[in-house]
Amino acid sequence: MLREFGIDDILLLLTGAKWTVLLSLIAFTGGGLLGLMVAIGRVFGPGPLKFLIECYIRAIQGTPLLGQLFLFYFGFSIFGFDVSAWVAISVAMVFFSSAFLGDSWRGCIEAIPKTQWEAADALGMSFVQKLCYVVLPQAARIAIPSTVGFMAQIVKNTSLAAVVGFVDLLRMGQLVTAATFQPLTVYLVVAFMYFAMCYPLSQWSRILERRYNATHQH
Amino acid sequence: MPLINIESIHKTFGKLEVLKGVSLDIAAGEIVVIIGRSGSGKSTLLRCINGLEKVESGKVVVDGTEVSAAKADLRALRQKIGIVFQSFNLFPHLTIEKNVTLAPRVVKKVSPDEAKKAAITALERVQIANKSGAYPSQLSGGQQQRVAIARSLAMSPKIMLFDEITSALDPELVGEVLKVLENLASEGMTMVLVTHEMGFARKVANRVVFMHEGKVWEQGAPETLFKSPKTPELAGFINSVL
To answer: Which residues of chain B have pLDDT under 50?
Structure first.
């Protein structure tokens, strides 16, 4: 019952791609918000909080994402929460992203020289004002390449979600291959779709960097 | 009551005692220049005045507020005390105009229009109003330093502190910054300067304070101090810099 690879299959793959995009967006938005808190807590928080955040970062960076996905997927049900694969995967991806972004942004915040804080201090700014108007805008500029690079990583990492039954782009590729038995064609199309998602990100990073560097060279 | 009252302050960094009981009173409108070898504590003394450095003992009172008190409202105080640093410390991500309007807008909650007007006035005072749209990196050191002065002036401070503000500049750019300082002095601003520009100290200061090994070693009117130093340390210092 094999069929030819055709327009219907492309549409199927696009459905898979839609979930990939959606999951990436959740991972990035949620991970970004939590990551900002992780970064700020890690730099400015009291000692015990810093330590806890450090443990959190180490735990997530030191274990494979695949393992984390399993842990959340099965962990929820063990503790009696009946959640869908969607929720479990989203939560796992958000934690994963927040640890990486948080740690990388921590470095960006710490890269801003102490003299910038001092200049803002001397003008009577509050902590939040110093952070929002002086430090974070400059840290954001440094963070652009690594952050956008990580966004592309997230897009590709979402494919791991297939292991708990989530039908993303890659999983859909497997299903279409099973029906058409044309792996080369299918996976080439799948690869192109991933590329079509990631390439604009790297271009965007370049545009952002160029825009900032044009006016802010030291 | 002097505007700035410093009473036997002590300050250590690790094992190094930088200020060993410094007392100094500065009256409103006075221009005080602090001189001394590097490591003599002059910059630290300056930074104690607006609380950028905490003193370990002794008292610093500025305009009736005790800076050295544990619960001092440093934010309110710093709005009255401008400071300009050796390394400019402009905000590199903001244009010149935004560098100057930022603090009035967010700290003093001045309206954007008013802040802009005040910024233009401040930039005119330092003769650099034509660069308001540029970024700090596009300016020369002398221009950046003048913007840093304007940034402080825009907060309408009662006192201005200057921490070796010409030391990082190419020699040909020092003059333009000193000229701005002279103008400020002639407008009656209370100024405390740490500087190596002895010619400037002579010309503009009401009083010169010589610091040596964490203490006020000698002070007085510039003419007397430079012409007839009482201590061998000051005499040696003058010889080495002139």
So the answer is: none
Q: Does 3.40.50.300 match the CATH number of domain B1-73+178-241?
A: yes
Residues of A in contact with B83 (CB under 8 A): 122
Residues 106-125 of A with CB under 8 A from B: 115-116, 118-125
Q: Chain A residues with CB inside 8 Å of B89's CB?
A: 115-116, 118-119
What are the residue ranges spanned by the domains of chain B? 1-73+178-241, 81-157
Mutation site, A123, A126, A144, interface B, largest B CB count within 10 A: A123
ipTM for the complex shown:
0.90
Which residue from A166, A207, A173 is spatially nearest to A192, judged by alpha carbons? A173
Cα dihedral across residues B204, B207, B210, B211: positive or negative? negative
Quickly count: other Cβ atoms within 10 Å of residue B233's Cβ.
17
Q: DSSP labels for B83-128?
A: EE-TT----TTS-HHHHHHHHHHHTS---HHHHHHHHHHHHHHTT-
